[in-house]
Amino acid sequence: MSEEIKNRFLQYGWLAPATFPLTMIGGRGLFHTIFFLYVLWALASASRLRIENHRTYLLLFLLLMTSYAISIPFATDIIRALKSWGTLLLFSGSTFVTLAMLQQQPDNLRRLLAALGVCGLIAVFAAYVDLGHILLFEDEFMPRLQLKAVSLTFYLPFLLAWLWLGIDARGRRLAAVVLTISAITAYVTLSEERSAFVGLVCALTCLGILVLRVRVYLTMAFVAGVVMLAVALNGEALLRGLSGGQDTFTQMDAFSSGRLTLWSQAIQNPPENWLIGAGMNNARYHVEVVSIDGYLVKHLHNIWLDAWYETGTLGLAMLVGLLLYVFSTTARHWKAITAQDRLGAALFLTGALTILAETQFSISYASREFGIYAFTCFAALLHLARRAASSPTRPVPHPPENSA
User: Fold this and answer.
1) CB 105 within 8 A of CB 95
2) Rounded to an integer, what distance in angstroms lies between the CA atom of residue 223 and that of residue 208?
3) What does each C-alpha distance from 371 to 33, 36, 382 come to in angstroms?
4) In angstroms, how far is CA 33 from the centroid of its own chain?
């Protein structure tokens, strides 16, 4: 029975991270149920998971989590800080399960991409079904609270690639791609969530430049067209806060829903201990920082300021160090990645950058979106970079000697 459980996990259980953005559309309860079943399944199968040649990544990850943990004893709410740390450890720790499985079978990378594509398609369908249910049966429609746009922006590149490779007829392929981009753009625009819209813009830009390798000016022209269309459809919501007759700071602060005020308050009122911070998920207790127009927010809505305020300069430095390692390793081996693997590398890089773009305005460093979605992409990027680095160099053929 034990071996059967392990075998099932190695066959398809490890692909569960591909479903997590989809489960978020169904609600946090569904997500937590699937996620913790995945954790238990992974722990039961841990003896069959092996990671090779990624000691630097493992060391940086351990240093990151250690730097986050140091602030826990000094937090205002120690239990909250400890719970947030443990949850993030489980979220981001899934990166090593993915990394181990990608190393086991060469075909696992293709399977992960396919799983993300299929789940993306289901997610688009589920998102619109959920939207229909809200419009028909809910008394109030509050797009920013009820619509889960982040999941669709993350799935977008993988779904488009899956459709493009899976549909033979060129006309149907183009129609599917256009319809998908239109459906996701419409949903994100309707959601009124501007951080998700920033993620959409980032995803489309990276798709054009990294995946399709279209000229930059053509990609930017297409993205500009999408932005203008979105503004035409729901500009009042996307451009809310902009008005004339105000100084630049006040106008941009209103446009950013008070984020500039939030960020300036954090800088003017730094944590008491600048090295280790106020403790994970404890910024909420510093009223002078998180208060906006009489309302209290839970975090600073920026990955760098969130990490700095709650885990200090040490935690921020470790986070930046890990990100620099992942992206620099990917860049260093990019040209050596085979043409067959280049598509996967471009897609996972697009996914990681999409989430990172959204963390600048909304998603926290301790969120499930960053801890799972981005770290899954990191695992794939490092796997592809390591595979490129370890592949034997092809010998350069010598020109034939002239015959006498």
Assistant:
1) no
2) 9
3) 17, 15, 16
4) 20
- Own/partner pairs, 285-291, CB within 8 angstroms, 24+ separation: 285/76, 285/77, 289/262, 289/265, 290/262, 290/265, 291/265
Q: Residue 397 has what DSSP assignment? A: P
Q: pLDDT digit string (tens) for 283-303?
A: 999 999 999 887 899 999 999
The rounded distance, in Å, linking the Cα atoms of 319 and 322 is 5
Kindly compute the dihedral angle of the four CA atoms of residues 279, 285, 288, 292, in this order, to the nearest 10 degrees. 110
Distance separating alpha carbons of residues 391 and 147, to the nearest angstrom? 44
Asked whether the beta carbons of 198 and 152 are under 8 A apart, the reply is no
Could you give the percent of the chain with pLDDT greater than 70?
Answer: 96
> What local confidence, expressed as pLDDT, does residue 339 receive?
87
Quote helix, strand, coil % in the chain, to nearest 5: 75, 0, 25
- Candidates 222, 117, 112; CA nearest to 167 is 117
CA-to-CA distance for 358 and 306, rounded, in angstroms? 13
pLDDT tens-digit map of 59-84: 999 999 999 999 999 999 999 999 99
